[in-house]
Amino acid sequence: MNIAINTRLLLKNKMEGIGWFTYETMKRITQQHQQDHFYFIFDRPFDKDFVFADNITPIVIGPQSRHPVLWYIWFNWSLYKVLRSIKPDVFVSPEGYICLNSKVKTINVMHDIAYEHYPETVPWLVKRYYKYFFPRFAKRANRIATVSQFSKNDIVSQYHIPQEKIDIVYNGCNELYRPIDETSKKQTRKKYSGETLYFVYVGSINPRKNIIKLLQAFDKFKSNITTDYKLLLIGKQGFGMDAVNEVYHQLQHKMDIEFMGRVEDNEELNKIISSSVAMVYVSVFEGFGIPCLEAMRCGTAVIASNTSSLPEVCGDAAIYVDPFDVDAIAEAMRKMAFDQELRQDLISKGNIQAQKFSWQKTADLLYGMIEKVYKS
After folding, report:
1. Are residues 191 and 95 in the same domain?
2. Which of 91, 95, 198, 297 has its CA 20 to 30 A from that of 304?
3. In this structure, is residue 19 part of a structural domain?
4. pLDDT above 70 covers what percent of the chain?
5. Are the beta carbons of 260 and 205 closer than 8 angstroms?
6. What angle is formed at CA 16 by the lines to CA 134 and CA 344, rounded to 5 degrees?
């Protein structure tokens, strides 16, 4: 087979969730299926580390596309010309956007359609683009992959796509995440929190991730205890930070909250998560929630929202809270801080739960879809 892949989000030291999905699946698929040839299509000069095998031909086409107008040009004009030229058997887009003009058999990976439920969390022009194009992307694709049963049901309901057209390919988790010893934990806490115990959040800093309620809950938690605790937030700041900053500056315990930005070194991120009391992941809407799995692999307990896909991903290995209830989130933090038996039970269950997901399983399922579409 000749397979074209949209690798637009393979960006050195800048990858987020979908970029990692692309990296982890395509690295395995290209290396494990040497009989096939792959075209990796970038929108800017690429890092050679992303050419995983000799059976990959990288192609760069412009314009660099990080804006709705440029998305339209890149996917419907530039990408169309390339697909018409190379004539692949199958085209795979890991990010939800596809070329509507091309007749090439297409697999579209739609991770979630959160903007349908929380349109206020994305800029106006982006929202307009999503609302117009994503239903069309879903209908045009020969098959759709998504990362949870929740997301599958949502796509079926919102876009009226037949269930049999959608396959679930759960996300995996980087296998380097693992528990660390007590000495390393103390060294990590000394480095990042002045030896103080802390909760951690990993992900984008934007309204959909419920950062405001998380900050308010931590403030309430701190107001009701005498022990010293901190909250570390790791991730890139995104749309909606004005509202987050406004709430932050009103908090009584804001000095115990640190916005750390992105942590590019996975080994360092592993240490930070492993050394925390718990991962607090109370997003209002998630297609999957990889940071919860990362915490479980690190031997760290998880507080998660009781909404969207998170109960599906976390199973019995989390304390669940209503993400809109500040008191409930604060109480979950209190339990994690002071109930060692509960925390240890969740850590044990998390170790079992995390084993259900792997990038190899994801890659195998996605390649199975490629074969299915090729033979259809």
Report:
1. no
2. 95
3. yes
4. 100
5. no
6. 115
